[in-house]
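FORM 7B: Structural annotation worksheet

SECTION A. Query
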Amino acid sequence: MPDAIFANPRLARVYDPLDPDRSDLEVYAAMAAEFGAGSVLDVGCGTGTLACMLAGRGLDVIGVDPARASLDVARAKPGAGAVRWLEGDATSLPSLQVDLATMTGNVAQVFLTDAEWASTLSGVLAALRPGGRLVFETRDPARRAWLDWTREHSFTRTDVPGVGVVQSWHELAAVTGELVSFRSFTVFEADDMVIASDSTLRFRERDAIAASLAATGYRLDEVRDAPDRPGREFVFIARRPS
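SECTION B. Predicted structure
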């Protein structure tokens, strides 16, 4: 079940305007070129920014996401017709043989149980051609990014065309082991509507992620530092063995 922040149509509509800097996605576009990928599966594609970007560069792209509202936004974007959009997740994919699978943003952290994570990895593995790669990022738990998930550090007020002024911020709710829960608030000033969305992310250790990849049948090629957030995130590059 996707969080309301992705599944609520009103929130999905303002998701991109409230997070306009997606320069981090150039990292994935560059890796697609580096690996010579001609086809890409974007897992948890959300509002489709990366999928449309890659399709615009001539790649065959499939975007999958469980949030219909986010997919509705994605389908309305310029160039979206070149992308194959699927409502669902990595466990419900049709038969595929892609060169590259991506999970950007927090996608790799939304799978809270070992079983959910393992089934997601298995679903992606089955969708890769032999030798195909899975690339994803996840925050380094040692950096404790959640300490900045407060109204003081996260508050924004944005004038969204066609919507009006929108306020947004996060508030940390709980930290229990590897699980970090927080609440996101969005205020639409035009009608004083306040929408709250509760989320939980799992901050897995680097070695645990590597072990989970190996257990699922991947070969871990390397772990890079996220160039746009140095020292804060790991970028895993794993391969389906030939």
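SECTION C. Observations
The mean pLDDT is 95. Residues 4-141+204-239 form a domain with the Rossmann fold fold (CATH 3.40.50.150).

SECTION D. Sign-off
Analyst initials: ____
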